[in-house]
Every structure is written in structure tokens, then in C-alpha cells.
Amino acid sequence: MPTNFLIAAAILAISQASTARFNPEWSVVFPAERVATLVKQCSRPVPGPIETGWLPEPEMIRQFDIALVPVFREAANKAGIEGARPGAPSEYYRQYGGIVVDGRRLIYVNGFNASMLELGAKLRPPRPATDWRAVAIDVCDGWTGYFGAEYDPATRTVQNFHFNGRAMLRSNAR
């Protein structure tokens, strides 16, 4: 019996560890000439003005993903208190781009929950699927389904993490 418990605990720990990080296969780095499209978001603050773009190295993206997890979790916990339940980091796609703002090289991430990719097909009328690897995803509102953040590779710090805004429900009552 104790052996079965240890095996179950190990399986649970492995499962939790895989959801506790971002999936590296669900990310793309935009080329420098298209990076400005990532920071055109309608319902969250974005960095700028962008002076130019640059292409981050894969190791920088890996470091950003690692540094982003605790920042994401902290923001998710706060959002949960306010009523939203964001998914685990492993449920989010990410689009990265190197930007220069005020002479500083930063990496910007545009993240979105996997369920949001399927949402377009459920709308009336349905929206065609978007190739997330080639087109910056921009959705007004969406709250914890979408986020953005900046990473400074020189200091290895994440800053300015924001979930999208949320639609305000309006009542017809007077």
C-alpha cells in the first residue's frame, strides 16, 4: 500500500510540474520587422513608443519563460480573488518579440489561453481561425484569457505584467 501511495504521489508531482511551466512548443518569436504588431493591444497597457525591433535568441526566450511563471502565478492569484480563474501556465500560447524602448532592449510577450483559439469558431457568425504563429493576437477585453509582459534580458526581470481588461456588464434597469 505505501508503494502505491508513493507512485501516485510521484505521478501527481510530475503532472503538477508540467502544468506549472509554459509549454515551449506553444511559443513563437516574431521577426524584428513584425514586432510592432504585438504591442497593438486594445485593452491592456503596452510598452512604447517602439524605436526598433530585434530578434531575441532562443536562450533569452527560455529565461523569460522561467522568470514569467512566478509573475504569472502572482497575477493569477490576484485575479482569482477578483473573480477570474486563469488557467495554468501550460494552457497559454505565447508570441514574443524583441523591442527597443528608450534605448533599452526588451522582449515583449503576448499570451493567450488555448481555449481562446477555439472561441472564434463558436461565435455567431464564426470567425475564421487565425494562424497564431504569423499574426499577432489582439482581443479587446478577454480578461485572464490574455496577457502581456516585458522582460529585460540584461537584468533577467519581468515587468509590467497585465491581463487584458474585462467587459463591463451593463444592466437595462434604470
Task: Put the structure in a nutshell.
With 174 residues, the protein is an alpha+beta fold.
Class from secondary-structure proportions? alpha+beta
Largest sheet entry: 6 strands, mixed
The total number of structural domains is 1
Q: So how many helices?
A: 3
Strand content: 15-25%
Q: Mean pLDDT, nearest integer?
A: 82
In total, the number of strands is 6
- Name the shape in a single word: globular
Helix content: 25-40%
User: Distance between the terminal alpha carbons, to the nearest Å?
Assistant: 64 Å
Order of helix and strand elements from N to C terminus? HEEHEEHEE
State the assembly state of the protein chains.
single chain
CA radius of gyration is 18 Å
Contiguous low-pLDDT stretches (5 residues minimum) are 5-18, 168-174
Question: Keywords, please?
Answer:
174 residues; alpha+beta; six-stranded mixed sheet; 3 helices; 6 strands
Question: Your description of this structure?
Answer:
The protein is built from three helices and six strands, in the order αββαββαββ. The protein has 174 residues and is of the alpha+beta class.
Topology:
Blueprint: H1 2-19, E1 27-29, E2 52-54, H2 58-81, E3 92-101, E4 104-113, H3 114-122, E5 146-152, E6 157-163
Parallel strand pairs: 1-3
Antiparallel strand pairs: 2-3, 3-4, 4-5, 5-6
